[in-house]
Write a structure and sequence with these properties.
- This protein is an alpha/beta fold.
- It folds into 2 domains: 225 residues, Nucleotidyltransferase, domain 5, CATH 3.30.420; 217 residues, ATPase, nucleotide binding domain (Nucleotidyltransferase, domain 5, 2-Layer Sandwich), CATH 3.30.420.40.
- 36% of the residues lie in helices and 21% in strands.
- The protein is built from 16 helices and 20 strands.
- Strands 1, 2, 3, 6, 11, 12 and 13 form a 7-stranded mixed beta sheet that branches.
- The protein is globular.
- It starts with a strand and ends in a 6-residue tail after the last strand.
């Protein structure tokens, strides 16, 4: 076909959904494919990602899009969740399951580690990472070294998940900063290099060479396209906003985790902030981005299932519940502060009332979380993207909570994937970056 559409393919791998997107040179979505896999279990019986299903899905999806005559694939890259390592042997084969970042971490190993390197507060402060057990992916590799030295010896490279997926196509192992800089405990944010414990424990040779986030390589087999090194999803989601907005803003990227990212906050992390799950990410340019995290998307998922079961309705019920300020006022007047998981569902008159209470509870936590990264670096706008940006109850409550800041539901067609594509724009796209890729909906505070 003579006039093929030049596109970039982005694999967006979340904990729940695995998606493939094709974007044209205007960053318009022209093709989408979604897959879900059943989890498998690791050797301890703990649930984990099915790595083989993921690998096969990549090649199945690519076979499908390469067979379509209308697309000219110029580049392929990846964005995935973080804190997850794939351990490769000399032949490039995975040596272990893809361990879940929620896997329990042995207290003895953790205690020994922190004692050896100056204590939790010092290590946390220097690495801009709260103490999170397996969510500190560097500690996953340290655990293997301590518990299974024979396995550790066989590891050629420990690749974070985005870089493993890139490796599947390029055959070249790399590390990059957005994956290294997301609560891994690996990076010394003061010295802008691996922390001294990484070198002290002999981990650095197991970590592939660091390259810039806009690096591309050739594919290992066939095809005239570029392969990006992949990005950590939270950092990728920030890129369209950094490209389009220069006034100070806060981005609340909502998904399984709701992450408040303030790229304009240069204040050092305090021990108190670290204990409240604040951290720093590294942006695609290598700059520290102060952030706070809340497991709110996961909580929403669990509690909506509970509500659906209790009220005997479809689990997608919440998509049809409109914002009702009177219901909010009635519930707040009761002043029943509690974790929603502990609330008696029989105390609610109907599903609308119960769901409004769930969102009240989640937004109250979100306010506390976001305020942590607004302190010392106020912003003029808050952008919310992802699932909660489409939730009118959530958005209205958030706008009400920050009356002096403009609050917007921001819609970028797949912000994480668009950000990943933007990071290698110059390698695949002959056109300038469009300035209308972010759709904004302003949530005004009603004047009483």
């Amino acid at each position: 076909m003579a006039n093929k559409i030049p596109v970039i393919a982005i694999f967006d791998v979340g904990k729940t959904n695995k998606k493939l997107f094709l974007f044209d040179e205007q960053y318009q979505l022209v093709f989408e494919r979604t897959a879900k896999f059943n989890e498998t279990v690791d050797e301890d019986g703990d649930p984990c990602e099915n790595l083989e299903s993921l690998r096969l899905s990549v090649f199945d999806s690519l076979r499908e899009v390469f067979s379509k005559d209308i697309y000219d694939i110029k580049a392929i890259s990846f964005s995935t969740y973080g804190a997850s390592f794939v351990y490769l042997d000399e032949q490039g084969q995975p040596l272990t399951p893809l361990y879940n970042y929620l896997k329990e971490y042995p207290k003895e190993i953790s205690d020994t580690f922190y004692k050896k390197y100056g204590g939790e507060d010092l290590v946390s402060n220097e690495t801009a990472s709260p103490v999170l057990g397996s969510l500190n992916s560097g500690l996953q590799l340290y655990r293997i070294k301590e518990e299974r030295p024979e396995l550790f010896a066989r590891i050629k490279y420990a690749l974070h998940l985005p870089q493993y997926m890139s490796y599947l196509l390029s055959g070249t192992a790399y590390s990059e900063l957005t994956s290294i800089g997301c609560h891994t405990l690996l990076w010394d944010f003061n010295k802008a290099q691996y922390h001294n414990w990484v070198t002290g424990e002999g981990l650095e040779p197991k970590l592939a060479p660091i390259v810039a986030c806009d690096t591309v390589t050739k594919p290992a087999f066939g095809g005239d396209y570029k392969v990006g090194v992949g990005l950590h999803d939270s950092s990728a989601a920030l890129i369209p906003y950094l490209v389009n907005f220069h006034e100070p803003f806060l981005l609340i990227s909502t998904g399984t985790w709701c992450i408040s990212l303030n790229p304009f906050n240069n204040t050092p992390l305090t021990p108190g902030e670290l204990k409240q799950d604040c951290l720093c990410y590294l942006s695609y340019k290598g700059n520290a981005v102060k952030a706070s995290r809340l497991f709110a998307g996961y909580e929403h998922e669990q509690q909506t299932k509970r509500l659906a079961q209790h009220f005997k309705i479809s689990p997608s019920f919440y998509k049809h519940i409109a914002y009702n300020p009177e219901t909010i006022d009635q519930l707040k007047a009761l002043n029943r502060s509690a974790e929603f998981a502990d609330r008696d569902l029989d105390s609610f008159a109907n599903i609308d009332e119960a769901y409004h209470q769930l969102i009240i509870d989640l937004v109250e936590k979100q306010i506390v979380s976001s305020q942590l990264v607004l302190n010392g670096a106020p912003v003029s706008r808050i952008f919310v993207d992802g699932g909660f940006s489409k939730n009118p109850i959530y958005m209205n409550l958030l706008a009400k909570a920050f009356p002096k800041i403009e609050v917007y539901a921001a819609s970028v067609a797949q912000a994480t994937s668009v950000g990943t594509a933007l990071s290698i724009h110059q390698h695949w796209n002959s056109k300038p970056i469009p300035n209308d890729m972010i759709q904004l909906k302003y949530y005004a505070i009603p004047h009483v």
